[in-house]
Amino acid sequence: MWLKKAFNQADGSLIPKQTFSNKTAIAAFGVGKNMVASIRHWALACGVIRETDEGFRVGSLASEILSDDGLDPYAESPSTAWLAHWQLAGHCFRSTTWHWLFNHVTAPTFTRQELEEPLARYARDLDPKHRLSASTISRDLETCLRSYAPRAAGGSPEDFAEPLLGELGLLQEVHKGQYAFRRGPKASLHDGIFAYALIDFWNRTAKGQSSLAFEAVAYAEGSPGRVFKLDEESIAQRLMALSDLTGRKLEWTDSAGLRQVHRKDLSKEAIKNMIRRAYE
């Protein structure tokens, strides 16, 4: 409910900057001081709000989903969780560990300890001037992994709470401390969310192109195939369904061994309609 708590602080579409830092924040959010800072972080990382000179502005998509009469006011739908995952792992804004884990880790199984040094190198390459301690890397990895594969038993009451991303089935703890991705079809991932992610990826990596190769959709860094851990057959099936879903704005072709998606201009409203379909 943290994303909803952040959203509820908006007056219209704006949250004053002091909302997360003044003395009344603990009472307003109903959580401790550190958790208020965490709510701010996750709302930014998941794209619910963005920071501006005036304050924190609520995104139009967040308003459509989280408003009291919205598509999913209590963040109960798997589609909301998939969108949050896409923001965290598909983008690299305040979520470097998430992006790196889903786009750069290819080992069949791994432990947190095995990931620490490669992630530290990746972080250094992104920003050589910024020094990160080993404990910071370790804590961030633990938080990331437990977001998808919560502890089965033991620990504090928070450890038993099912995190927003835990229901997606993207990561499993195969043995104590050892993890593996679950690759393959994702039954709870609606084609509308897949199509939204595809357009978002397309706009960020090849905006001027009217076609996109299957290999880019399946394997490129930040692509739906990588971020959602889909197998080739699942991706092909979803691409073939795009024509009906988008009113032929997106078309899949497979001829002479050339597999591509073609697109026509899509309005913001048409893109929102893809997401609305996922909540029907």
Number of strands: 9
Estimate the strand proportion.
5-15%
Radius of gyration: 19 Å
- Class inferred from helices and paired strands: alpha+beta
Distance between the termini: 21 Å
Stretches with pLDDT under 50, minimum 5 residues? none
State the helix count. 15
The helix-strand sequence is HEHHEEHHHEHHHEEHEHHHHEEH
Number of domains: 3
CATH T-level topology of the largest domain: Arc Repressor Mutant, subunit A
Keywords:
280 residues; alpha+beta; Arc Repressor Mutant, subunit A; 3-stranded antiparallel sheet; 15 helices; 9 strands
Please give a structural write-up:
Helices cover 49% and strands 12% of the residues. The protein contains 15 helices and nine strands. The model has no long low-confidence stretch (mean pLDDT 93). Helix 7 packs across helix 8.
Gist?
The chain is an alpha+beta fold and 280 residues long.
